[in-house]
Amino acid sequence: MKTVHLIGMVAFAALAASACDGDQDDPWTASSSGAGGSSSTSGTGGNTSTSTSGTAGSIPGDLVADHNDADLSAVPQAAIEQAIASLHIAYQHTSHGSQLITGMNALEAFPAFGSLYAWDDSGADTNALDLDDLGIPGIADLSQGDSVDGNGDTPWVVSTRELLDNGANSHINVVVWSWCSINGHDAQRYVDNMEKLVSEYPAIDFVFMTGHAEGQGEDTTADSVHYNNQLIRQHCADHGRWLFDFADIEAYDPDGTYFWDQAMMDNLNYTGGNWGVEWCAANQGSELEQLTTGNGVTSYDGCQGCAHSSDPQEANLNCVLKGRAAWWLWARLGGWND
Predict the structure, then answer these.
(1) CA atoms 212, 213, 219, 223: torsion sign
(2) Planar angle of CA 98, 100, 105, nearest 5 degrees
(3) pTM for this one?
(4) Per-residue pLDDT tens for 277-306?
(5) Alpha carbon distance, N-terminus to C-terminus of the chain
(6) From the CB of residue 166, how many other CB atoms can be counted at a distance below 10 Å?
(7) Where are the domains of the chain?
(8) For residue 209, what is the enclosing H or E element?
C-alpha cells in the first residue's frame, strides 16, 4: 500500500471548496486494447475513483505515479513489453518536463538493462516505446498556455484538439502536458480544461501533472506551488484521473525521507544540503547510485544533463527517479495491475 505525505489534504479540500469542482503479488493483467480507463482500490492518498476515459474497460490499481513508484523492481518485464506494444504517447513540455525524458534516456543507456527500456521519438521502432517528445505543436507548456480564449479554452487545449483531430495522429492514445513553473498559475483553470479533453476524447488517456519545487514548502497561499499541486491531486483523486505527481517524486529520497517542507528547490537542495548528494554517498554501488553517477559501470557515464538538476552530478538522481516513475506509469497505462 502506498504512503504519501500530503499535509492537510482534507483541510485543503475544505479551503479550496469554492475553487475545486471535485464532487498480494503483482498479477499481470493486460487490456486487450492497451491504454485504458482505470479504477483504483488501494493507496493512501492515492486514487480510488473510477476513470471514465481511455480505450479499455478498467485497469485495477493505483492511478498516481509518485515517489512510491520510482522503483521498477516490482514491474514485470511483460508489463514493459505490453506498454511498448500498445502505447502511442504525445508529450509536450519545456525544460522541467524534459526531466522525464532525461531519466528515460539514462535507463535506456544503462548496460545492465539491455534494450528493455528503449523508446523512440519517431515511432518507427516497433521494439521501442512510441513517445513523440515535444509532440504537440502550438504552445510550449502548460505555464505558457495559462490563458483562455472567448470559449474559455486554453491554448494547449486548442493545440491538443488540432493534434487529435488530424487523422494522421489517430494512433495516439496517451497525451501528457507538463508545467514549467506552476507558481502563480490557475490550477483550477487547468483541471477544468483537462476535463474538457477527457470528455471530448474518451478513447484517449490524459495524464495530469503537478509542478516542481520552488522553495515554498507547504505554503498554501492561493495559486502557490503547494496550493496548486494539492488542488490537482485532490481533483485527480475525486475524479479518477491519471496523475504524474512530479512534485511528490522529487519531495522524497529513495528511502522515503521527506524534504518538501524544508525549503526544497528543484535541484534537490534543501535547508540542510542536497538530498541527492547525501543519498548517493550513503548508497555507493547500488543500482540507483550507479544509474545516477555511472561509478563503477563500464561504457556508461551516469545520467547527464538533468534540466535544473545537473550540478552536482548526484542531483541527476532527480531525473533518474522521474524516468523510473514514468516507466511505471507507461506500464500501468498499458494494462499492468500493480
Answers:
(1) negative
(2) 95
(3) 0.86
(4) 999 999 999 999 999 999 999 999 999 999
(5) 10
(6) 10
(7) 35-333
(8) strand 205-209
